[in-house]
Amino acid sequence: MITSQLPALGQKSPEAAASAIEGITKNELSTPEEKAYCLLQLAFCCIKGGDMTALAESFKTNLVKLGPASFFSTSSRFENPLVSWVNNVSLLSHSAATAQSETVKTKISSGNLALADKTIEAAIQQLGQGSKKAEALNLYLVASCLSRIVENTRNEQKCAKVLNEAIQACESNEMVDSNQIKVISSILNSMAYGLIPIRIPDYQMKSPQQLPAFDMKSYDESERLKLRAAALLDRLPAGDHARRKVHRDLSLWYSQLGRDDKALREKAELFNLVGVKDDRILYPQSGMCGHLVWWIAAQSNITGLCGMG
After folding, report:
1. Whether residue 264 sits in one domain with residue 190
2. In this predicted structure, what is the pLDDT of residue 300?
3. What local confidence, expressed as pLDDT, does residue 69 receive?
4. Selection from 240, 235, 32 nearest residue 133 by Cα
């Protein structure tokens, strides 16, 4: 449900869609964050031209559960689906704010823009009733980005204020826990991705990625955001996976952009953290049961089989 492509089917009446939205907001079995997530997915669907009403009706009976053991979890193997979606929304909002804006907006009818705006407003209201979990800040970033696309400056600034205060509080408080640091750094990286959409995969590509078009202003801002994320993660122990990976990803990011001196600087930082000076640690090895083994240069030996392939 989280990662699937939304079908582009005919819209039903705005009244039917509004009724379905009300059904989500009044669902007493779901948390405000869950309802906000579903509402933002509806708005995203509407902006992208999907069948918002059909998706809303499915959410009325089966709202997505965002439990800490699944949706908000992190993994050393796969990107969190929420993070992937936030990256895509961040990129879409920047495209709508640049020279591509007319191309983006001409694909969205005035009725869909109005309906998306109403849905985003409902999502923001739900977020204001939430438990203030750090992970919910991702939803504030989505709401801010979608508000930019529908040109609701008030809502965009409202969400941006929440995000900026949370980021600055995390940067100024040395006592915040590791989860808060990782969430805030992820948000900063999602903001950076919207400016220069370069994905750093966990495998070595056979051919270099085609670089997106960008200007120096976008580069400077994207780099600034990424370095803020790295500075936060550098508070964590040297053996923390997220701290090591942010320098690994930065090194490869700089390499993609031809900033070889900065790439070498970040790689040297990674080598110091790991205690191994070997380019092979930039990419993980295959371990048991499809898991990845990070930060070792020597070939790992599988000492047992679990029967799961």
Report:
1. no
2. 60
3. 41
4. 32
Question: How does pLDDT run across 232-254, given as a tens digit for each residue?
Answer: 999 999 999 999 999 999 999 99
Structural domain boundaries, residue 109: 1-198
Residue 206 domain-assigned (yes or no): no
| More reliable by pLDDT, 183 or 70 | 183
Q: How far is CA 253 from CA 55, 207, 262, 274, 305, in A?
A: 36, 15, 10, 19, 36
User: Whose CA is closest to 294, among 80, 73, 75?
Assistant: 75
User: Residue 40 — pLDDT band, cuts 50, 70, 90?
Assistant: very high
Vertex 116 angle, CA 90 and 28, to 5°: 100
Give the bridge partners for 292, in sequence order: 286
The tens digit of pLDDT for each residue in 107-117 reads 678 888 888 99
Helix, strand, coil shares of the chain, percent, nearest 5, are 60, 0, 35
Q: Is residue 228 part of a domain?
A: no
Q: For the chain, how many structural domains are there in total?
A: 2
C-alpha 86/C-alpha 183 separation (Å) is 12
- Cβ-contact 9, 54 below 8 angstroms: yes
Digit-coded pLDDT (tens) for 252-283: 999 999 999 999 999 999 999 999 999 999 99
208 contact partners, CB below 8 Å, separation of at least 6: 256
Alpha helices by DSSP H, listed for 73-136, are 81-96, 101-106, 110-128
Among 62, 52, 68, 67, smallest CA distance to 24 is for 62
292 by DSSP, 3-state: which? strand
- Give domain status of residue 219, yes or no: no
